[in-house]
Amino acid sequence: MLPNIEYSLSYSAPTGIERDALSALALNPDARWHERMDHALFVVTALHEGIRVGLGIVHNSVTAPTQAPRPMELGGMFVHPAYRRLGIRQYMAESRLTYALSMGGTPITVIDNRNQASWGYYERSSRWAREREYTGYFTGLPMTIWVSTESSWHRTGMGLTPLVPAQPNTVLPQGLNRAEPLGFGPDQGNPVPA
Known about the structure:
The chain is of the alpha+beta class and about 190 residues long. It has helices spanning about 15-25, 30-40, 90-100, 115-125, 150-155; strands spanning about 5-10, 40-50, 50-60, 70-80, 105-110, 130-135, 140-150.
C-alpha cells in the first residue's frame, strides 16, 4: 500500500525550527543552501504522517549566468530515498513551475551535468529548453541552465505569443478572448532571443 503523502505550501522563507527541519532533508546544507532559503519565494514540503519527506523551493538568489529576465530558480529539491518513485518529485516540480509562471517570472533550473537522472528528464521534456552550459561558480563543475518553454521570455524568443501570467487572487475580466494575441507594451517591442 502506498503511503498517504500530504503537501504543505509556503510563500515565504522558512525560519527557526521549520528551516532546521527542512535543512535536514538536504544532502549538504551549506552556505549556498542557506542563501537559497533566505531568498525562498515558495516552498513545497511533502509530509508522511507529519514527518517531512520531501522539499522543493523556488528562489530568486540566482547565481547562474542566465540571460532570462526575472529568473526564478526551481532549486533545492530533495526527496528522502525511502519515498522515491511515488510521484512526490513530480508533484513538487509541477507545483514549483506553476508558482513561478503564475508570478510572471522566468522559471529556470540548473542541473549538474553529472546528474544523469535529472539531465535525462530535462533533455526529454518539452517543457524545458537548454539555455546554456557553464562552469559552476561554487563547484567548478559543468552545469546546464534549463529555461521553461512556457515562460513568456522563451515563447517570445521562439516567435510565439506569450502566455498571460495568472497572478494569485486575480480575477480575469469576463469575456476575455484568449485566442487574440496580446500586444507588446512600450518597453517590449523587440523579442528577446532564447
